[in-house]
């Protein structure tokens, strides 16, 4: 009887903690815009974009800012620290130069820590923990928006050989801090989904393994428990959109080795979110997720979480397209076939690596019933129609051309550009459309017909309803000479 009463009391305490933490994270989510760093709102951020922010915190007595290294090309790496607790927490971002979502979130978190609101919660965090942030570990890669550093190596595969100065810096800081928890912050492909669901893996977590057997010691178990807590929080804002990253051991990787060296390592991967190409909603989820994790670490409430719940988080899968056209009729050599098309909108960087355009391709075709997409169109009863080529002096009304079944246009083209902002393909006067066929790898540009009438165009992988104004639709971009 006494044991049952104690268990009931303990359950009420846990319930109270859960309710309090839910209230906190709800407030964090609702007030996010008050702390969002407005100077960096696109993914292609560079080292120069964050330097004024680092200088701002360097001048703030609440923070300790120190240069801790340089990249191969001589860009400074800074560590920003705050807090007076005995437990060191180390967070680093963008060791892959084209993975900037968490770098933005770090500056949102720093703004939050500097603000007067949430005094009680911040006191709980900063009196128990000392936080250390190393944003943009790979600034040379960020400069050209690529994964690897200037040496052409993946920093996250340099934990053993330590040939990159960026990797050397990361190892030195980890060792000097001997951090209890480490947050390894990345972006993953938006084509990952939560296993056996149609939903993207907007956020994926991993408590990295430290050996091939994937053993679970106390260090790894603590990471798992905090991840379970973060998953529960994110389910409130992106339900069903959390995945569990593969825990296959990689002996060269920093995350795996940092876990081996005694730091509870939490990998966070930012994936895709519908209608969020610049990942600003995912940035917000990083902010809420990380601050919530710091709070549960500070008050040690994570210790009561069953480690077994970690395995309940769905695994990552990769079964998503940007556009899926289902059950469409495709005529080939006089016969009709029913196929699905899975289309990917690839980003192509422009000079300077500040902007991009889309060049799409058919990723797969056939029976794609086990796949999902950000946008799905059931084309049962629709037939694929070959596009036409037309020559015009100028393009005044792209929609009229589309309604006439024209996708390729011979006309004057803008200089020094590979794309146009309207959904047509501009071609040379000598262009001839070769025999039309649907094949994986091809640029998806065609029309759909139903009951003898053209109803939709697919131009460079974007589906356009011919009955609606273009400005009311997401039409992507057209291409010049198919480049």
TrEMBL record:
GO biological-process terms attached to the record: proteolysis
Q: Which InterPro entries match?
A: Peptidase_M14
Query: Which residue positions does the secretion signal occupy?
Result: 1-20
Q: Which UniProt keywords apply?
A: Hydrolase, Metalloprotease, Protease, Signal, Zinc
Q: Report the GO terms under cellular component.
A: extracellular space
Concerning its family, UniProt says:
Belongs to the peptidase M14 family.
- SUPFAM superfamilies according to UniProt: Zn-dependent exopeptidases
Cofactor(s) of this protein? Zn(2+)
> Which segments constitute the Peptidase M14 domain?
59-158
Q: What is this protein called?
A: Peptidase M14
Transmembrane intervals: none
| Species the sequence originates in | Flagellimonas oceani
Q: Which GO terms describe its molecular function?
A: metallocarboxypeptidase activity; zinc ion binding
């Amino acid at each position: 009887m006494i044991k049952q009463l104690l268990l009931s009391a303990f359950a009420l305490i846990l319930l109270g903690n859960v309710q309090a933490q839910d209230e906190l994270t709800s407030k964090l989510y609702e007030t996010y815009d008050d702390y969002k760093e407005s100077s960096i709102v696109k993914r292609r951020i560079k080292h120069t974009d964050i330097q004024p922010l680092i200088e701002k915190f360097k001048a703030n007595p609440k923070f300790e800012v120190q240069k801790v290294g340089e990249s191969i090309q001589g860009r400074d790496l800074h560590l920003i620290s705050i807090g007076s607790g005995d437990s060191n927490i180390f967070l680093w971002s963008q060791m892959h130069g084209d993975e900037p979502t968490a770098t933005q979130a770090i500056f949102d978190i720093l703004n939050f820590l500097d603000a007067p609101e949430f005094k009680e919660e911040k006191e709980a965090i900063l009196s128990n923990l000392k936080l250390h942030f190393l944003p943009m570990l790979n600034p040379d890669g960020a400069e050209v928006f690529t994964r690897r550093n200037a040496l052409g190596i993946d920093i996250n595969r340099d934990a053993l050989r330590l040939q990159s100065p960026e990797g050397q810096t990361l190892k030195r800081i980890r060792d000097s801090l001997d951090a209890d928890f480490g947050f390894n912050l990345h972006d993953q492909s938006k084509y990952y989904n939560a296993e056996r669901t149609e939903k993207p893996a907007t956020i994926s977590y991993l408590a990295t393994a430290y050996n091939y057997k994937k053993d679970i010691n106390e260090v790894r178990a603590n990471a798992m428990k905090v991840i379970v807590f973060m998953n529960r929080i994110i389910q409130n804002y992106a339900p069903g959109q959390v995945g569990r990253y593969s825990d296959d051991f990689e002996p060269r990787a920093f995350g795996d080795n940092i876990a081996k060296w005694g730091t509870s390592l939490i990998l966070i991967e930012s994936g895709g979110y519908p209608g969020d190409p610049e990942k600003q909603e995912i940035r917000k989820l990083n902010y809420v997720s990380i601050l919530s994790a710091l709070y549960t670490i500070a008050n040690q409430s994570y210790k009561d979480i069953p480690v077994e719940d970690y395995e309940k988080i769905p695994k990552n899968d990769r079964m998503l397209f940007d556009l899926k056209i289902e059950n469409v009729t495709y005529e080939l050599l006089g016969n009709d076939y029913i196929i699905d098309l899975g289309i990917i909108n690839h980003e192509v960087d422009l000079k300077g690596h500040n902007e991009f355009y889309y060049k799409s391709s058919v990723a797969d075709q056939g029976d794609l019933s086990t796949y999902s997409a950000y946008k799905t169109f059931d084309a049962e009863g629709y037939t694929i129609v070959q596009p036409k080529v037309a020559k015009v002096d100028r393009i005044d009304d792209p929609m009229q051309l589309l309604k006439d079944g024209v996708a390729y246009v011979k006309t004057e083209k803008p200089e020094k550009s590979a794309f146009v902002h309207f959904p047509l393909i501009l071609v040379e006067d000598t262009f001839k459309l070769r025999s039309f066929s649907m094949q994986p790898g091809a640029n998806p540009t065609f029309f759909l017909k139903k009951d003898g009438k053209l109803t939709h165009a697919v131009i460079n992988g974007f589906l356009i309803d011919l009955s609606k104004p273009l400005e009311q639709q997401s039409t992507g971009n057209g291409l010049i000479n198919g480049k």
